[in-house]
Amino acid sequence: MQKNQLTWMIGGPQGSGINASAEVFAKACSRAGLRVYANIEYHSNIMGKHSFYRVRVSEDDVRSYREKTDILVALDHETLSGDDRRWGTHTGHLHEVSEKGGVIFDSDIGYEPPAGRPGVSFFGVPFMQIIKKALEEVGKGEQARRYEVMKNVVALGSSLALCEFPLELVSEVIIGQFKGKRSEVGQLNVRAARLAFDYVRENFEAKDFPYRLQPHREPKARLLAKGYEIMAIAKLKAGCHFQTYYPISPATDESVYLERQQRDHNLLVVQCEDEISSINMAVGAAHMGVRSATATSGPGFALMVEGIGFASITEAPGPVIVMYQRGGPSTGLPTRQEQGDLQFVLHPAQGDFPHVVIAPGDMRECYQDVFSAFNWAEQFQLPVIVMPDKKLAAAYTTIDKLELKYDKIERGKLFTGSEWTPVEASGREIAAGNGNGHSGNGHAPAADVKEYLRYAFSEDGISPRSRPGLPGGRYWSTSDEHDPDGHITEGVAMRMAMMHKRMDKLPLIAKTIPKDQQYALHGPEQADLTVVGWGSTKGTILDAMKVLEERGRTINFLQCRLMRPFPAEDVERILRGAKRLALVEENYSGQLGALIREQTGVLIEHRILKFDGRPYSEDELVAAFEDAFAVSAPQRVEVVTNVG
Amino acid sequence: MSVDAPKVPVKFTVKDYKSDLHNDWCPGCGDFGILTGIQMALAQLNLDPDKVAVFSGIGCSGKTPHYIKAYGFHTLHGRVLPVATGGRLVNSGVTVLALGGDGDGYGIGAGYFVNTGRRNLDFAYLVHNNNVYGLTKGQASPTLSKGKKTKSMPEQAIQDGINPIAMAVAAGYTFIARAYALEPKYLAGIIARAIQHKGSAVVDVLQTCPTYNDLYTKEWYEGQDLPEKRSRLYKLEDQGFDGKVHDPTDAKEIIAKKAAAVARSYEAEPIPIGVYYEIELPTYEDAVNQRIPALAEKPLVEVDVFNRDVTPLLEAMR
């Protein structure tokens, strides 16, 4: 008997309601005090293609998926046996079912359980008959086809009967989702789930099924959230006034979530004609004095790049860009996982300019980093890019508590109307010593004149910022190189001074951002193997480390989070002190490895890479780390999903 | 920006909108006329320079904001409309004026030209239309007709020119006008109307480029080569043309006025200037204010959003 340790999966054609089924199940488990990690895999398709949703339930914190499924629910044949297309995309999930696992399938799909899996129990459930029965009870028996989507609650009811999980907890969640006018439909769904539950209890020996889920008596109140929701809420919490977007997977959900909050939270969301418009509207809004943001994915970011250089040279106090990575290149794998954009986001546009890039590794870090991003954008007057990925955006995960460690709103240096830039900071001497004639703005240098200059030089390179509408705070700004007054210059000395003014922000930022937000060393200070990774692989690496520690291995994990400015010194110290190194990334080339080598000179030769569009499973990393301990020479290891 | 003794003139004059920056346009450039037109319009409307933001694209025209004493944003090639839109949306307390060249607005920025019309945001957009890319030394712009060749082009234009007025009608601009750069007084009147208009206003400003456009010169516009030596421009109102929709709920009148504007826009010579089309419709801001009632009272930039309570949103995730 295995208690409260289970992976449940539902598969079926897109549009058949598997999301609802899995999310209700996940929520019921989370409310019961158990921890959940749920992830969906789906095609870039609206209806019909194979998709599946996996829910891992545990007593302990879980941040990744396992390869074995203990209960598999199949709404169609393809879920079990794969597709028969030329160059089939998968071989079905039956081979993933654990030795003594169970398969619930719709008995209408004409499936004959194969002989090759003796330990697996197969439960054929007449899905449509059950739906029809529920409808007959309310006099709607003839409408069964219209209610086909209720298959997902039949799936749920059947599953709960197997693992003896109280149906009431699920019914509560369902009722909560159908409020007001739709409460009748909610009741109908609850009834169908009940009939399915009873059907399995009456027709099968469910008692022998070795997996059990048992709710806690006094369950701890936790959150169950998706990353995009967390990032949207972080934007609200940070005082974001303005969000722009152009629809793109997997970033759209964040903007749509925010769109719903407009009225209650005084936030304006604009759907733009393309991402060039999105970034430039956000830059315009930032200059106008609000906290502005946008969200996109790789293909959209590819359009935004000129706007990033523009924001940086004009020292706009933003925007904050949440850049959800997905499989590239080009349109690539629109709905799949990859960490393939790090080098691109680090070098988005022409010329040298400062920007901040941070890659959160889990939900809490997403919340903190998106919040902090708005502070940095205004304090340092530059664009800030937060780069999660599809896994973080869509994974449905239990979180204990969501709170900010660094929760102060910092708006940076502001022009208040009474402060005037002293003349010595105006850059006149620089221009005068330029040898190029006039100062660029045509003012006659007069020592007694005080003036407001938007790009005035200062000790730390940051000039107080004004915004249109403020009396006396008038300024010019240009995407050309410029003087302190914001007018175009091509003078040698001014160019030098302005480049330094902007680029010197990077060391200042490195000093300002707390170290624990820049990187983290998880596990013991010294270990036989040091794993190096970033972003959403954090959870999987930690889960795998736990397994290895139980086996007596000593392993630690250097998580890189702040990518620009990069904490090179600290990272180098940790890497040079490590006994054995292994790089873990979800891309082809090892992009963090390249950054580390560029910044520290350290080459991590043993590379564990995955780029098939699916995140690592815990099992894959456990195996890859065991290998890393064992190999006599470092190598490139390509991990490929055991296709399902 | 120098700070003189604080003065709040009751009446601003053209001088109050002049920056003291050295101007590097070619002598005789049509941009001077447009700059003067803008400054005259701002003075006519008596707008406080601190409450005006001028946005531009890239090119000779892009330098215009530097010569105007107001908040000035010299943005990217083709992207002036998105930047101005973002600025306008978050601060309705400031008068936003966008401007750019014909390549900027009808070529690289054509998508934004169309979509800005769709939104009917309350700001004015001026297009400096001189048929050439001046700053890159005279290539054909999107308004140069097929077969035409200006002096620095190695070959005749192989693509046809677009019709900005017809395009503006189709896109949904609610104030569409054309003026001529070398008649700054008339231009100023049109610009003032465009700024005052509630909704997206576009003014296509015919402009000479004395350095690169040897076809459409000052003399050509004046018709000095014509036997009767009459101007190649005429004012729509002089022919009794009225582009204004008097009943915005009357679909028939709207269609008739749009059709008339488009028909006039295809007249080759003489070229009509003046207001082609005008209608008062609810703006994007009106719709936003309905969604976010707080914005009807003050601009977004002045709304305090730093104490939002997100607890209910988190609670909903239990």
Unreliable runs of chain B: 1-6
Q: Which chain pair has the greatest contact?
A: A-B, 77 and 61 residues
Tell me the CATH topology of the largest domain in chain A: Pyruvate-ferredoxin Oxidoreductase, domain 3
Percent of residues in β-strands of chain A = 15-25%
Q: What value does the Rg of chain B take, in angstroms?
A: 21 Å
Q: Helix coverage percent of residues of chain A?
A: 25-40%
Low-confidence stretches of chain A: 432-449
CATH architecture of the largest domain in chain A: 3-Layer(aba) Sandwich
For this structure, the CATH topology of chain B is: Rossmann fold
Which percent band covers the strand fraction of chain B? Answer: 15-25%
Account of the protein in words:
The complex is a heterodimer of chains A (644) and B (318). Chain A contains 22 helices and 24 strands. Chain A has 644 residues and is α/β, with parallel strands linked by helices. Chain A folds into four domains: 2-221, 3-Layer(aba) Sandwich (Pyruvate-ferredoxin Oxidoreductase, domain 3); 225-399, Rossmann fold (3-Layer(aba) Sandwich), CATH 3.40.50.970; 409-513, no CATH class; 515-638, Rossmann fold, CATH 3.40.50. An eight-stranded mixed sheet of chain A has the order 7-6-5-2-4-3-16-9. The model of chain A is unreliable at 432-449 (pLDDT under 50). Chain B is α/β, with parallel strands linked by helices and 318 residues long. Chain B has a single domain (14-315), classed as Rossmann fold, CATH 3.40.50.970. An eight-stranded mixed sheet of chain B has the order 2-1-3-4-8-7-10-9, with helices on both faces. A two-stranded antiparallel ribbon of chain B has the order 5-6. In chain B, helix 1 (30-44) packs across helix 6 and helix 5 (164-171) runs antiparallel to helix 8. Chain B starts with 29 loop residues before the first helix and ends with a helix. The model of chain B is unreliable at 1-6 (pLDDT under 50). The chains are: A alpha/beta (644), B alpha/beta (318).
